[in-house]
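Quick one, tokens below. Sequence please?
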């Protein structure tokens, strides 16, 4: 489908060659950033549960020279954290594999090699990392950013070749790069997995539809997770059964005799159908089919 674009961050603040956070910074050999976007920000941008994120972009003001960002990698995942402080979030999935990238003026869009489905409730964390083998302040491509009320960026910068695999932290910041997301406005059940506990008597092959006739009160818990297995949500539904005695008596307004006419059993408590000798599937009693004389 044709993607829709939404932007988070609208300030015109601009980084400098030695400023950090800096997703295209070259003041050190390499840098690793984790950037947090809250669920409310994503909603305001236009993203809803089930939408498929396919790209993100950062807004470049000036291009460095040389501008190459070696081993640039982007990962993404969800979190319940509202602020980033001291520890990088692990378990993220790679959506842009390692490659050499050259920033350009304006929005630099990074297309995902793997779609990411947002669950609609979790905060989103994006990790962007690059690692060159040299540094030069003039090589930094500056970007536009906005100041957030929370610590929305966590970063590590150093002169070594193990930046992206490192768990070390340089600092946290509220200076977040303006970001544009490209996403598909659809909810496709094929992007989700459904796990039931307990498992109903009848369950469709995709796990979406179920039916059961419980003999006692029961609560079904359905874990809905994205196809990548990063984000999940548990939905619960309770079914209550009626086990107390109830009046199922009936009466006739005429004598029932063999070879007599058909009569319908109408229970006092509606909703049921009588069964037994001489009663067909519609609850109709036929004296000819019974042992009445």
């Amino acid at each position: 489908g044709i993607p829709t674009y939404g932007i988070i961050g609208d300030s015109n603040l601009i980084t400098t060659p030695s400023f950090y956070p800096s997703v295209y910074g070259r003041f050190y050999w390499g840098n690793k950033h984790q950037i947090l976007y809250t669920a409310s920000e994503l909603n305001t941008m236009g993203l809803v549960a089930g939408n498929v994120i396919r790209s993100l972009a950062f807004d470049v003001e000036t291009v460095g020279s040389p501008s190459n960002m070696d081993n640039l990698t982007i990962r993404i995942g969800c979190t319940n954290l509202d602020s980033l402080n001291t520890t990088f979030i692990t378990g993220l999935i790679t959506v842009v594999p390692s490659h050499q990238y050259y920033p350009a003026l304006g929005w630099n869009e990074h297309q995902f090699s793997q779609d990411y489905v947002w669950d609609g409730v979790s905060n989103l964390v994006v990790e962007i990392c690059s690692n060159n083998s040299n540094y030069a302040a003039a090589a930094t491509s500056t970007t536009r950013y906005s100041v957030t009320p929370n610590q929305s960026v966590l970063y590590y910068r150093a002169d070594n070749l193990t930046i992206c695999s490192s768990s070390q932290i340089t600092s946290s910041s509220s200076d977040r790069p303006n970001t544009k997301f490209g996403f598909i406005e659809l909810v496709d059940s094929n992007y989700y997995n459904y796990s039931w506990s307990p498992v109903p008597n009848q369950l469709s092959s995709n796990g979406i539809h179920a039916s059961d006739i419980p003999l006692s009160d029961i609560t079904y818990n359905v874990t809905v997770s994205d196809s990548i297995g990063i984000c999940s949500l548990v939905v619960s539904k309770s079914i209550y059964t009626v086990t107390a005695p109830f009046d199922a008596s009936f009466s006739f307004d005429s004598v029932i005799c063999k070879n007599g006419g058909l009569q319908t059993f109408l229970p006092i408590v509606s909703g049921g159908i009588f069964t037994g000798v001489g009663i067909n599937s519609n609850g109709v009693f036929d004296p000819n089919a019974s042992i009445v004389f």
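The longest helix spans residues 39-45. The chain has a mean pLDDT of 86.
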